[in-house]
Every structure is written in C-alpha cells, then in structure tokens.
C-alpha cells in the first residue's frame, strides 16, 4: 500500500460540525470536588502508588526500564525514546492504577476512554518523526493532537514539538488534563475543548498531526490543516481488516500520499463536544 498516490479522499461520513472548538481561554467548567475519603483509603492509595519492586514511581529508573523494553520491542526513534523516558506516566492515571503505569498496557482513564499503550504512543510519534517536515526540522514543529484524554501523549508531544494544540471532546477529561498538564504550560501547549474532527484552523497549518481515536475516514479538516511536507498519523477503520489500522498521510505539493500500517485498537472518534 505504501507510497502510492491515493485516490482523492472520500468525503467524511461524519455528520457536519456540531460544536465549534472553544479557545483555551474559554471559561472552564466547574471543577469536580472530590468527596472526603477515610484516612485508611488514602493510605491504601498512597501504598498503591509505589511500584511492586518498592522503587518509587517518580524514579527515572522505572521509566528507563520501560523505554528499554520498548527499544527491545523495536522502537528505534531516539528523540521519542528520550521523551518517553522523561514523562511520568503514573501522574496521568488514577492512583489505583499507578503501579501499572510503566507496563506496556492501555489503562482506563474514565468515561469509557483509555490511555494508549506506551508502545503505541511511541510507534505513532516515531512515524510522525519520519515525516518530511519533521526530518527537515529535527522535531515535530507545530503539532495537533486529537483526543487529549488524560494528557499523557500531549506531555510527550511537548518534548518533541515546538507548539502543541490538543483537542478533547469530553469536558471532564479536558478539565482534568488541564490540571495535570499545568506543569507543562511553558511548553507552547494549548488545550481545547471541542470536536477534534474540525481540527483547529486558527493555528493551522500543522507540521504533525496525531489522532488518539479512530474513525471511518480522515476528516477533511485535518487534510486541509496539514502543512505541505507535514504528516498525519491516525487510526482508521479498514474494510478489509474489519478493524482499525494505522494510517499515515503525507502532504506534498501535488496532493496526499496515504500509507496503511499495522492493525491497532483505539476508542472511536466521535462527533460533537459534551
Ligand atoms: N492521547 C490520549 C488518549 C486518550 S483516548 C492520552 O494520552 O490519554 C482518546 C480520546 O479521544 C478520548 O479521551 C476521547 O474522548 C477523545 N475523542 C474522541 N473523539 C473525539 C473528537 N471528535 N474530538 C476530540 N476528542 C475526541
């Protein structure tokens, strides 16, 4: 499939726009107040936030081991490996799941959504790093992420790109990610609550685009907002495979090139923001 000139992209089967993206400065929704927990439960949570080996999850060594395993699994992109070694993944998941944060597994993040496996995050970001613009620049340039979720991949992107725009459609996840990503604010990060199928035109064009949710096709707005030389990586439904596959779209002067890669499992790309 690789490298061939694609047929013109099919029109999206998604319904027309539902909710416009709101700017990051839009008034935030009421924050969720946690009920008071018994002290025993708080202590159990604290105990669970320590890795079974007894090594604190804040330790760089835990992340380095995760990265070594990803390297053994075939991930070769140095900048991506370095970025994955720096972001404390356990801080983006519920404390009850923190001990599993450095295993190569997807984890629930609430509202039926999941944080992708580190190997899948690494794979998608390394594909982005191989784009024409990214190779010229030596980094991901201006990046758009669709599906902020818990904010983990947005944090990794902050280390790989010069500017990151990340869109989430579910307000509670957007708000939680905003809090978790507070320490990353100095890294040119803009978080938006809205329908990511529309992209974010005010910051376009993007050198790199990555979707963390899979649809039937690539929404037209993403193709329009991709820079010439830019690359988009997204899970899309494949009729032949019957599930999602990783799709890479490269934009060049004459059009777009689409390359299908391996099968993947992602949550669905949905319409509208709520
Ligand atoms: N990158 C995330 C993965 C989150 S899972 C992380 O590191 O945690 C995918 C996310 O995509 C979910 O939070 C889901 O709500 C969101 N999503 C699905 N459709 C969307 C859309 N149209 N616009 C924005 N976000 C969307």
Q: Any chance you could write out the topology, listing elements then pairs?
A:
Blueprint: H1 39-48, H2 60-72, H3 78-86, E1 107-110, E2 113-115, H4 118-129, H5 132-137, E3 142-146, H6 152-160, E4 163-168, H7 171-180, E5 189-193, E6 206-211, E7 213-214, H8 220-225, E8 226-238, E9 243-252, E10 255-264, E11 267-268
Parallel strand pairs: 3-4, 3-6, 4-5, 6-8, 7-11
Antiparallel strand pairs: 1-2, 8-9, 9-10
Helix pairs in contact: 2-3, 3-4, 3-6
The structure holds S-adenosyl-L-homocysteine (SAH).
The site of S-adenosyl-L-homocysteine has 24 residues, from β2, α6 and β4.
CATH superfamily of one domain: Vaccinia Virus protein VP39
Q: How would you write the strand order of the largest sheet?
A: 5-4-3-6-8-9-10
> Structural class of the helices, strands and pairings?
alpha/beta
Work out the helicity level: 25-40%
* Count of DSSP H/I helices: 8
* Bound chemical compounds: S-adenosyl-L-homocysteine
According to CATH, what is the topology of one domain?
A: Rossmann fold
């Amino acid at each position: 499939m690789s490298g061939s000139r694609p047929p013109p992209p099919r029109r999206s089967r998604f319904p027309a726009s539902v909710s416009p993206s709101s700017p990051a400065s839009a008034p935030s929704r009421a924050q969720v107040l946690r009920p008071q927990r018994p002290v025993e439960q708080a202590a159990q949570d604290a105990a669970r936030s320590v890795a079974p080996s007894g090594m604190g999850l804040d330790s760089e060594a835990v992340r380095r081991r995760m990265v070594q395993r990803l390297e053994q699994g075939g991930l070769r992109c140095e900048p991506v490996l370095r970025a994955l070694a720096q972001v404390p993944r356990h801080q983006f998941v519920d404390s009850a799941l923190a001990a599993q944060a450095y295993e190569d597994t997807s984890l629930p993040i609430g509202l039926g959504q999941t944080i992708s496996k580190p190997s899948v995050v690494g794979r998608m970001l390394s594909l982005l790093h191989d784009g024409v613009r990214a190779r010229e620049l030596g980094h991901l340039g201006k990046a758009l992420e669709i599906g902020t979720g818990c904010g983990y991949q947005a944090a990794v992107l902050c280390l790989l790109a010069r500017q990151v725009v990340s869109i989430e459609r579910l307000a509670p996840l957007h708000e939680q990610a905003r809090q978790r990503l507070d320490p990353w604010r100095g890294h040119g990060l803009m978080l938006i609550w809205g329908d990511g199928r529309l992209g974010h035109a005010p910051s376009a064009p993007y050198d790199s685009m990555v979707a963390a949710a899979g649809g039937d096709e690539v929404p037209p707005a993403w193709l329009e907002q991709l820079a010439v030389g830019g690359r988009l990586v997204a899970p899309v439904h494949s009729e032949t495979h019957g599930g999602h596959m990783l799709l890479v779209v490269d934009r060049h002067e004459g059009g777009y090139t689409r390359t299908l890669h391996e099968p993947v499992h992602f949550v669905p790309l949905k319409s509208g923001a709520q």
